[in-house]
Write a structure and sequence with these properties.
The complex is a heterodimer.
Chain A lengths: L5 H11 L5 H17 L3 H13 L5 H17 L5 H5 L2 E4 L5 E6 L3 E7 L5 E7 L6 E5 L5 H10 L1
Antiparallel strand pairs in A: 1-2, 2-3, 3-4, 4-5
Helix pairs in contact in A: 1-2, 1-4, 3-4, 4-6
Chain B lengths: L28 E6 L1 H5 L1 H4 L6 E4 L1 E2 L2 E2 L22 E9 L7 E5 L6 E8 L8 E8 L2 E2 L15 H17 L1 E3 L5
Parallel strand pairs in B: 5-10
Antiparallel strand pairs in B: 1-2, 1-5, 2-8, 3-4, 6-7, 7-8, 8-9
Classes of the chains: A alpha+beta, B alpha+beta.
C-alpha cells in the first residue's frame, strides 16, 4: 500500500485555498490528491470523492481529517462487513461541521468534524444506556475511530 | 392571561384561568413535532432553543391528546401543521419523582448548562411545555443563541445537550438518569 504523506497533503490544501491563486493551484495539484487517493480501494475512493466533491467549502482541517479517516477506512475495510462501509450518510451542519453518521437498529452513530479543530464521536443506543460521547482533539487514533464508527 | 383568539383551536386546549402545573409524573407523555431529518438524526438536527412540546397531563387530569400538538398557535400560519411528524416521549424517571432537571458542568471552562422541563401554558395551548436551556443562568433563546450556547466556549456543553436531547428522540423517552 502506498504511504500517504499527510504534511504534503496539508501543504497542497493550503495552496489550493489561496484566495489569489487557489484555482490555478487547484488544477495543478488536484491530480496529486488523486494520486494519493489512488492508493485507496476503489469503493473507499469513490466514497471519499463523493464527500470531497459534495462539500467544496470544507476547511483545511476537515480535509485533513477526511483523508486520515478514509485511510483508516481503507485499512479496516477487509476486516468489517463490506456493506457497513456503504451504510453511512453525510451532511454539513448549519455551524459548518462535517458530519458522517449511521443509523441502525442498534443506535445512532455520529462523527462530527469541527471546521477548526476537534472531532466528536457520539453513539446513542436505541434501547439502553450504553451511550457514548467523546470529544477528540489530539493524538487521534483514526483506525480505532473507524472501527467505532462501523461497530454498531 | 389573555384570551385565545384562534377559532381553530378547541376550547378544551385554551388556558383561560388555569394555572401551570410544575410537577410531572412517570408514565406521562410529551408530544413533540419533528421533521423527518430530526427523527433520522436528532443529534445534529435539533435546535437548543424553542424546544416546545405538549404535555399529556397527570393521571386523571389528561389535558391533551397526541394529535393536538399539530394545531398551529401562530396566527399567521395554517391551522394545522401537516408537514411534521409527532414524536411521543414517555417520562421514565424524574428527579424527586416530580421534575426533570439536569445540570451539566464543563470542568475545563467552568461553564454550566442547565436543562429544565417546564409547563409553560400560552393562551391558546394550555398543555404547552418546554425544555428550557440555560447557559450560565442565562435563558437560551433564538435571539441570544449565538452569544450563549452557540458560542465556541460552550461547544462541549452543546454536544452534551445534543446528546441528551438526541437520546430522548431516539429512545422516545425522558430519563432523569440518562448520562450525558
Amino acid at each position: 500500500m502506498m504511504e500517504i504523506d499527510f504534511d504534503q497533503v496539508k501543504r497542497k490544501e493550503e495552496l489550493m485555498q489561496s484566495e489569489i491563486a487557489g484555482d490555478s493551484y487547484k488544477d495543478f495539484l488536484s491530480s496529486d490528491l488523486d494520486t494519493i487517493t489512488q492508493a485507496f480501494d476503489k469503493e473507499v475512493r469513490g466514497l471519499f470523492q463523493t464527500i470531497s466533491f459534495s462539500y467544496p467549502s470544507l476547511t483545511e482541517y476537515q480535509n485533513d481529517v477526511l483523508i486520515r479517516l478514509f485511510t483508516a477506512f481503507d485499512i479496516i475495510k477487509s476486516q468489517i462487513d463490506p456493506d457497513r462501509l456503504k451504510a453511512f450518510k453525510h451532511l454539513i451542519s448549519e455551524d459548518g461541521e462535517l458530519i458522517l453518521y449511521r443509523r441502525t437498529d442498534i443506535g445512532l452513530t455520529n462523527l462530527v468534524i469541527d471546521s477548526e479543530e476537534g472531532i466528536t464521536y457520539s453513539f446513542i443506543s436505541a434501547t439502553d444506556n450504553l451511550d457514548i460521547l467523546n470529544s477528540l482533539l489530539e493524538d487521534i487514533d483514526y483506525e480505532r475511530l473507524a472501527y467505532c464508527f462501523f461497530t454498531n | 392571561m389573555e384570551e385565545c383568539t384562534l377559532v381553530h383551536i378547541p376550547k378544551r386546549l385554551n388556558t383561560c384561568e388555569r394555572q401551570a402545573i410544575q410537577i410531572f409524573e412517570v408514565g406521562e407523555k410529551l408530544f413533540r413535532r419533528c421533521t423527518a431529518e430530526q427523527l433520522e438524526n436528532p443529534f445534529i438536527n435539533i435546535s437548543l432553543y424553542d424546544l416546545s412540546h405538549n404535555r399529556e397531563g397527570l393521571t386523571g387530569e389528561k389535558i391533551s391528546e397526541e394529535a393536538d400538538v399539530l394545531y398551529s398557535v401562530d396566527p399567521d400560519s395554517e391551522n394545522h401543521i401537516l408537514d411534521k411528524k409527532i414524536c411521543a416521549l414517555e417520562i421514565k424517571t424524574l428527579k424527586d419523582n416530580t421534575i426533570y432537571f439536569k445540570e451539566l458542568v464543563d470542568e475545563t471552562t467552568g461553564n454550566i448548562a442547565k436543562i429544565s422541563l417546564l409547563h409553560a401554558p400560552i393562551p391558546c395551548m394550555y398543555p404547552h411545555t418546554v425544555f428550557q436551556i440555560y447557559a450560565n443562568e442565562i435563558e437560551v433563546t433564538r435571539g441570544n443563541y449565538g452569544g450563549t450556547m452557540g458560542s465556541k466556549p460552550f461547544k462541549e456543553l452543546r454536544n452534551r445537550i445534543r446528546q441528551e436531547l438526541g437520546i430522548m428522540i431516539v429512545r422516545k423517552e425522558v430519563n432523569q438518569n440518562s448520562i450525558s
